[in-house]
């Protein structure tokens, strides 16, 4: 089939500040002084009703200054970023179990493991270079299992593909756990020494017999049993997951259910045995590490701990609110009820990335004041009162970012930014100065060194050492030593004191997707990424990819036949929230009743008009992965060729 | 419980290199030892991230007691070995190899080729103008990279990088046999009809510029490609959370090419389509 003729919307860089007096007017160009004065006035009059959207794409240094801005200048913990829409459940789940929100293993360990489980992850497309490490592992003899509703290009490399129904991850995990216990393959010594709550867990999973799990998940009992035995018997095993686990209304519970399996078998805290959530943005790990989340201070330190607060209060000469701030999801709800009136949005595009995007736009329109700092005039920036042009974090600034294996790496300036665009940190400092906090940092390294002085996990990472080692993984408390590449080795220590807090089993129950399929909306829609595109396409739309084919509603051949639709034929796709027109694509990776879309081309087809804003109560992540839709053939006359 | 594998301890072994004592870790190749000693041995098919293919034979050296010349890139150093890199026989062999390659292949974009031809006094012209050349136009069938098989020395590095050594996409292979052998994608068709995923990892390893980024190809054609005026800055990719290191090649404040350090623990020199080509958005300046 020929590709559609399509001219993707490309964004041009912002080169000067933009302001306007009211939202009905068009923007007009302004100088930096005027724009910053207006921004400062808008924020000052909304003190106490302020929220900061920090940027998971920008450097650690920028995130550190942004959260400090929220906490010190605006006196609030309402700071968050798009980690909320992807991996917040992983962080919440891992920290509930182990007290630390990072993935426990390193990429290199995947090459030396015996078993790899890729659960709800199409890493071959979404994390291609991580998948090269998986392929090395496979070539070194590891067996790989893929658990995913779609038979993805990751699953094509698997020993066995467990194509479960969307939203049945917990039954699957519990059935695997039960099978491991019943087969006598649980690591009893590890369970006794390093975990708590096993008896409760045993009772929890007992009803999930393989045959019941087969009914609920749609995966043959024998396949579930095989994965259980393979995982439990492996000398070393890696459990990797992505958004198929987290983007559910009970994402944190899903993560806990997977962590339980590692506790049951002792596949954590050892070289090549561990848990690996694959993060979706270049610095979504670092943003959280830097404290750009409502419940943690820099270095992922607990904001509810008085001693920690005291340390930061004396370092920053301020008072820190002794409670959690609002997360991104709660901030949007607070906009609705009018208790959040001003937002400083740096490098995020929630107008297109939030589930139920129409609602998100409506809520942002209600704000008294919105200042957006970005490299493009995104859909979100078009809603703003003041738009500040920033530099591109990865190519026009110095600093660091932190990847999925907790490796802090140097980012370096290679290009001169366009026009009057300025670095995020400089803009933040100028605004802070206008609001009574005259901040000055000589450069990114000065920010980093301030962070090192308050975060023990980062203390040993000088810029010099980061350069020498091509990045260092946290924790790195000492300037003359490197820690092991995996976390939580303490759980294996014979000395109970050094072993520390045992890891609790998560007692989590199956809860099917909120948006149920029925006669009216019979098809389950799930979402994901393609190889050559990325998120809302603002970045990836800029290059001429021969693979890009635009947005489609992807169906299996059986469903296409049932609805009498052909490849390329435009159909109406409706959910309980909205309706869009999209052309049909046929994908053999799908099966009857399962459809797939991406969010890469929101200007063509706004997929997030269909998705449901049913949020994880713990982490606030929406259920992007499970909506109920129906497909309608259009009257013949309107078929678009 | 398992412990961290330390690997077998690597002892140093001693051998003689051009009459001088050389000490290298066990498992090193003769080429590793030569480079450590600062000797310039020409190589084409050797790649620091790839298993040696022994295809091009320009790196041959003489080993005492061996019947034939040995390729330095793949032959491991052994204790007590006597290696000579600059004998009449080794030099003559390199000269003939360079003459055969340069007469049949366009080496104009192969780094150092001209210097080697001069050093070994190779005369590629001596086979006359009828020497077998491919004589075909560069293949431009997409906006990301160009294949110019007139520059291909059949070193197989792209086949290995696309195949089981790194990318595991298997889009690139050898078609034909003997004199007709050549590198191609499926049915020797256009790239856009192949399994190619445009990671550019084949371009990263190509030693002659037979595979090149469209940006570089166009600038060379326009006469504006100027490596001396380019800066190379290593930073971190702005897409997913894997954290691949990118080296941005910048000329006149424009990114003209993206590579990755071959010794990087995250990438080992490999990238995906987004990291390799997805930079244009930052320079859409007006």
Separate helix tally of chain B? 7
- CATH level-four homologous superfamily name of the largest domain in chain B: ADC-like domains
| Individual helix count of chain A | 24
Mean pLDDT of chain A: 91
Total number of domains of chain A: 3
| Percentage beta strand of chain A | 15-25%
Q: Supply Rg of chain B.
A: 21 Å
What is the general shape of chain B?
A: globular
User: At the third CATH level, what is the topology name of the largest domain in chain A?
Assistant: Rossmann fold
Oligomer: heterodimer
CATH topology of the largest domain in chain B: N-terminal domain of TfIIb
Q: How much β-strand is present in the residues of chain B?
A: 15-25%
Q: Residue ranges of chain B: pLDDT <50 for 5 or more in a row?
A: none
- Helix residue percentage of chain B: 10-25%
Helix and strand element order of chain B? EEHEEEHHEHEEHEHEEEH
> Uncertain segments of chain A of ≥5 residues (pLDDT<50)?
none
Class based on secondary structure composition and strand pairing of chain A: alpha/beta
The CATH architecture of the largest domain in chain A comes to 3-Layer(aba) Sandwich
């Amino acid at each position: 089939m020929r590709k559609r003729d399509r001219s993707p919307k490309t964004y041009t860089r912002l080169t000067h500040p933009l302001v306007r007096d009211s939202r009905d007017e068009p923007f007009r160009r302004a100088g930096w002084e005027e724009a910053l004065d207006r921004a400062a006035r808008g924020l000052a009059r909304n003190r106490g009703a302020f929220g900061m959207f920090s940027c998971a794409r920008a450097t650690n240094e920028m995130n550190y200054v942004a959260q400090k801005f929220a906490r010190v200048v605006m006196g609030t913990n309402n700071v968050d970023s798009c980690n909320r829409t992807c991996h917040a459940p992983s962080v919440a789940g891992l920290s509930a179990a182990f007290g630390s929100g990072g993935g426990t293993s390193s990429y290199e360990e995947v090459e030396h493991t015996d078993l790899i489980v890729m659960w709800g992850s199409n890493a071959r497309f979404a994390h291609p270079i991580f998948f090269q490490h998986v392929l090395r592992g496979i070539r070194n003899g590891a067996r790989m299992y893929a658990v995913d509703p779609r038979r993805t290009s990751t699953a094509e490399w698997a020993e066995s593909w467990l194509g479960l129904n969307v939203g049945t991850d917990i039954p699957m995990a519990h059935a695997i756990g039960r099978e491991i216990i019943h087969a006598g393959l649980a690591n009893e010594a590890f369970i006794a020494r390093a975990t708590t709550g096993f008896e409760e867990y045993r009772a929890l999973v007992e009803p999930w017999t393989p045959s019941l799990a087969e009914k609920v998940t749609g995966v043959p009992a024998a396949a579930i049993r095989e994965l259980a035995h393979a995982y439990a018997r492996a000398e070393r095993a890696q459990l990797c997951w992505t958004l198929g686990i987290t983007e559910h209304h009970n994402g944190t519970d899903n993560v806990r259910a997977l962590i339980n399996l590692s506790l049951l078998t002792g596949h954590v805290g050892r070289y090549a045995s561990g848990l690996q959530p694959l993060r979706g943005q270049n610095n979504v790990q670092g943003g959280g590490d830097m404290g750009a989340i409502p419940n943690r201070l820099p270095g992922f330190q607990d904001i509810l701990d008085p001693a920690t607060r005291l340390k930061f209060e004396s370092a920053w000469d301020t008072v820190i609110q002794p409670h959690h701030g609002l997360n991104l999801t709660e901030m949007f709800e607070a906009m609705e009820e009018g208790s959040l009136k001003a937002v400083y949005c740096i490098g995020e595009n929630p107008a297109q990335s939030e589930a139920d995007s129409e609602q998100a736009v409506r809520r942002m329109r209600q704000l008294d004041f919105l200042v957006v700092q970005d490299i493009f005039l995104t859909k979100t920036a078009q809603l703003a009162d003041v738009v500040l042009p920033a530099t591109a974090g990865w190519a026009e600034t110095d600093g660091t970012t932190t990847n999925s294996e907790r490796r802090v790496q140097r980012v370096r300036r290679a290009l001169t930014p366009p026009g009057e665009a300025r670095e995020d940190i400089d803009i933040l400092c100028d605004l802070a100065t206008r609001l009574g906090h005259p901040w000055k940092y000589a450069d990114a390294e000065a920010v980093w060194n301030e962070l090192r002085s308050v975060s023990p996990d980062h203390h040993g990472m000088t810029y010099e050492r980061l350069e020498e080692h091509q990045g260092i993984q946290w924790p790195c408390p000492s300037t003359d030593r490197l820690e092991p590449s995996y976390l939580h080795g303490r759980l294996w220590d014979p000395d109970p004191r050094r072993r520390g807090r045992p890891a609790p089993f998560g007692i989590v129950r199956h809860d099917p997707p909120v948006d149920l399929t029925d006669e009216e909306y019979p098809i389950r829609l799930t979402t994901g990424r393609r190889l050559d595109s990325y998120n809302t396409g603002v970045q990836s739309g800029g290059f001429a990819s021969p693979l890009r084919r635009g947005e489609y509603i992807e169906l299996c051949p059986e469903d296409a036949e049932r609805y009498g639709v052909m490849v390329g034929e435009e159909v109406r796709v409706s959910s309980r929230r909205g309706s869009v027109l999209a052309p049909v694509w046929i994908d053999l990776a799908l099966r009857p009743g399962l459809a797939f879309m991406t969010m890469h081309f929101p200007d063509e087809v706004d997929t997030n008009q269909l998705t449901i804003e049913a949020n994880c109560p713990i982490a606030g992540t929406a259920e992007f992965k499970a909506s109920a839709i129906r497909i309608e053939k259009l009257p013949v006359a309107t078929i678009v060729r | 419980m398992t412990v961290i594998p330390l690997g077998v301890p690597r002892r140093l072994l001693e051998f003689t290199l051009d009459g001088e004592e050389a000490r290298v870790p066990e498992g090193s190749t003769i080429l590793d030892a030569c480079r450590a000693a600062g000797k310039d041995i020409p190589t084409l098919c050797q790649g620091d991230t790839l298993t040696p293919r022994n295809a091009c034979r320009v790196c041959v050296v003489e080993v005492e007691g061996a019947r034939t010349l040995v390729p330095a890139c793949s032959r491991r150093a052994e204790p007590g070995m006597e290696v000579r890199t600059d004998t009449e026989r080794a030099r003559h062999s390199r000269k003939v190899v360079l003459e055969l390659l340069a007469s049949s292949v366009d080496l104009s974009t192969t780094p150092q080729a001209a210097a080697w031809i001069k050093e070994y006094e190779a005369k590629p012209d001596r086979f006359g103008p009828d020497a077998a050349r491919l004589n075909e136009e560069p293949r431009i069938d997409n906006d990301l990279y160009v294949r110019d098989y007139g520059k291909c020395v059949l070193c197989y590095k792209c086949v290995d990088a696309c195949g089981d050594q790194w990318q595991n996409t298997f889009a690139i292979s050898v078609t034909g046999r003997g004199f007709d052998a050549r590198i191609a994608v499926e049915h020797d068709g256009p790239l856009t009809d192949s399994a190619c995923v445009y990671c550019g990892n084949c371009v990263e390893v190509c030693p002659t510029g037979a595979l090149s980024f469209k940006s570089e190809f166009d600038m060379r054609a326009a006469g504006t490609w100027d490596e001396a005026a380019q800066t190379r800055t290593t930073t971190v990719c702005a897409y997913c959370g894997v954290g691949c290191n990118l080296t941005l090649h910048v000329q006149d404040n424009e990114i003209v090419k993206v590579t990755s350090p071959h010794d990087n623990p995250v990438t080992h020199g490999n990238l995906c389509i987004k990291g390799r080509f997805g930079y244009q958005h930052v320079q859409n300046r007006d």
